Amino acid sequence: MTSPLRAFLPATERALFQRIARAQSEGRAPSLTAAVARDGEPVWTAVRPSPEGGGPGVDVQYRIGSITKTFTAVLVMRLRDEGLLDLQDPLDQYLPGTDAGKATIAQLLCHSAGLSAETPSPWWERSSASLRPTLPDVLGGKPHKHPAGRRFHYSNPGYTVLGALIEAVRDAPWGDVFRREILEPLAMTRTSLEPQAPCAEGWAVHPWADVLLPEPVEDLGLMAPAGQLWSTAGDLCRFAALFTEGDERVLNAASVREMCTPSVPAEAGEWDSTYGLGLQIIRRDGRTLVGHGGSLPGFVAGLWVGVEDGIAASVLANATSGPLPSVVATELVRIVAEAEPRIPEPWRPLQEVDRDLVELTGPWYWGTYAFGLRLLPGRVLSLAPLAGPGRRSRFTAEPDGTWMGENGYYAGETLRVVRHRDGSVRHLDLGSFVFTREPYEPEAGVPGGVDEEGWRGLSE
């Protein structure tokens, strides 16, 4: 079953459906639903088995587990953007008295605060939230397993603490803030804290026999910001559009890029996977994807976005284990990206010409390394090696006439145009490095000077 909107080619739709059908069959899930969006627009949805066979339809809610964490992280970033907190602030500046108080907000967001992975016993996903009525009950007596800031250590209690932080700063329940600041602006009408019919039933599938066991559904209480939410595949793709270009109603593009930037070192041997601010970041098939996986007893979920391709895919299933939705979702992104590559925007010349900027473009040399400086739309400068790998960055204009590195090696570094007294360009100063029009140009003020005899051959 597919949505009425058929923006993909029939062969692409068949490949997508074949992949989720195989995932449901081989993963032995009672049902599996998926959706794909491109450039923020929903394009394709499907469910296996079909409603005609007794399975749920595409509008049915599933529990999404830890994908909830990304919603919580967006709320924290909104607080930062409003100037109500700084990511480098320690937690106890806003929530005094917790055993996690010395950790910074950024460390909590990227799971580098060193907190324990889970709450004290019993297993919080399958037990009543009444057993953990306060933050000390969630954190336990000794919540730190590692020094803060040293390594990635995934922590469910860490996101409970972030939920409490949001409540303290907003002076409102986390669920109310979540509905008001994310669900309503994005028109996510099928996402909620509690299940809203129609919703799938969660099942455990016996590992050695084709039989089922119903899983309990617990309200997570204080742990809600770490994994409470219910949603549909289509609603999740609507949320995923936020991570392709930002949405001023929820979070601007600059803050979205910050969330999508690696914040912790990858574990040894796992160089293709790391974590940003509330988002997992992986490399698959030569492309970078951001998103999150999720699971709770009876449910598994995956939401992944190929930012460069503008493609988002979500996969949900009502089984405790088996179909690996995160793997399937990344493959759905790949299928679309390879079968129907994005058509580039048409090239158009600039409408206004800044001759001083045009004068800066062309080859520049750092020592003998050749670089090219290009002028991009929006008064953006791009510096990159003319051949091979090397340091490359984009630069945006600052009010004082300098340029600030946006990404790459020179992110946060200042590019200055140094001129002669007559106004002509002498050289570029980039983080103290001198870039000249000719290699080691004598008149450009290269530190250490340039040999007076100039270039020469090697004497025998």
TrEMBL record:
Gene3D superfamilies per record: DD-peptidase/beta-lactamase superfamily
Ranges where the Beta-lactamase-related domain occurs: 18-336
InterPro entries: AmpC-like, Beta-lactam-related, Beta-lactam/transpept-like, DUF7586
Domain DUF7586: 353-437
Region (Disordered): 441-460
PANTHER family xrefs: D-ALANYL-D-ALANINE CARBOXYPEPTIDASE, D-ALANYL-D-ALANINE-CARBOXYPEPTIDASE/ENDOPEPTIDASE AMPH
Protein name per its UniProtKB record: Beta-lactamase family protein
